From TrEMBL:
InterPro entries: Kinase-like_dom_sf (IPR011009), NEK_Ser/Thr_kinase (IPR050660), Prot_kinase_dom (IPR000719), Tyr_kinase_AS (IPR008266). This is non-specific serine/threonine protein kinase. One of its GO terms (molecular function) is protein serine/threonine kinase activity. Keywords: ATP-binding, Kinase, Nucleotide-binding, Transferase. Residues 14-277 form the Protein kinase domain. It comes from Promicromonospora alba. Coiled coil: none annotated. The keyword GTP-binding does not apply. Its EC number is 2.7.11.1. The keyword tRNA processing does not apply. CDD domains: STKc_PknB_like (cd14014). Pfam families: Pkinase (PF00069). It is an enzyme of class 2 (transferase). It comes from the Bacteria.
């Protein structure tokens, strides 16, 4: 049973227009605000009280106020009665094109053209870098294709990092925070005792997203239950070997983001984004030139 019913009202402010989907932690609806128009509403499955909702969404609200074009804006938060009891919700800007998984699956082959994939990754890193540059850094902890929204501004791709509901500030001493997220996208160290999430862990998740965009495969089909298992498995196959359109230099950047050894991985989204931007600038238009020959 869904938490909200299409066509119902929440107070005199929101009308539930359409169910959009769900994840492990929430259901998503398209709603119409009485004055502000169409928005997206996430209803949290496990959080009930307003105090708990505010605590969970504290970092999301903080980041939304920065107004970065690659971060989803959060407008409102509160609680709503549902058949399962009171549940917390928050509203954010509605992106009609959907999430990155929708975008990826809309491609004929399932893999995204290399130039588009790099542009998506550069914008994803730009939004995530805002969180990582905070003092102390904020870790998203759940970067997946379902939490990245893709739309268009004047026919140009525009990417927004969404769902900061699991975001947490790292501890000042350790530079780490508790581990949460989607197992297939979690870094090896994030599995250790449940207390290993860091900006470098978000980088690993971006690397997993990049691999999926370029190859239509996850870097690892198995999800290790322990840090030991993750650290001792061989590196994934190079994206270049799975998709010849992927330049070896770009493949190296992706594999660098997926390094099990923290000392060899990009430390945060800004560093990864710089590497991707440098590659993008050096190879701008290469695909078009090759096609014209």
């Amino acid at each position: 049973m869904r938490l909200l019913t299409e066509g119902s009202q929440i107070g005199d402010t929101y009308e539930i227009e359409r169910y959009l989907g769900q994840g492990a932690y929430s259901e998503v609806y398209r709603v119409r605000h009485r004055f502000l128009g169409r928005q997206a509403m996430k209803v949290l499955k496990r959080v009930g009280t307003l105090a708990e909702t505010r605590r969970m969404l504290g970092e999301a609200v903080l980041l939304s106020r920065l107004g970065h074009p690659n971060i989803v804006r959060v407008f409102d938060a509160g609680t709503v009665p549902t058949p399962a009891g009171d549940r917390g919700f928050f509203t954010m800007e509605y992106v009609a094109a959907g999430n990155l998984d929708d975008y990826r699956r809309s491609r004929p082959t399932g893999s995204v053209p290399v130039d588009d994939a790099v542009e998506i990754l550069v914008q994803l890193c730009a939004g995530l870098a805002v969180a990582h540059r905070s003092d102390p850094p904020v870790v998203h902890r759940d970067i997946t294709p379902w939490n990245v929204l893709v739309g268009y501004d004047q026919d140009r791709l525009r990417v927004r990092v969404g769902d900061f509901g699991l975001a947490r500030r790292v501890e000042a001493r350790s530079g780490l925070t508790s581990s949460e997220g989607t197992l297939a996208f979690m870094a090896p160290e994030a599995l250790r005792y449940g207390q290993g999430a860091s900006p470098a862990g978000d980088v690993y998740a971006v690397g997993t997203v990049a691999y999926l965009l370029l190859t239509n495969l996850l870097p690892y089909e198995d999800v290790p239950a322990t840090t030991f298992g993750a650290r001792h498995r061989p590196p994934p196959i190079s994206p270049h070997d799975l998709n010849r359109d992927v330049h070896p230099g770009l493949a190296g950047i992706v594999l660098g983001a997926l390094e099990a050894d923290l000392t060899r991985r990009f430390s945060d989204a800004a560093e990864l984004g710089s590497a991707l931007t440098a590659w993008q600038d050096a190879h701008q238009g290469t695909s078009e030139e090759e096609e014209s020959r």
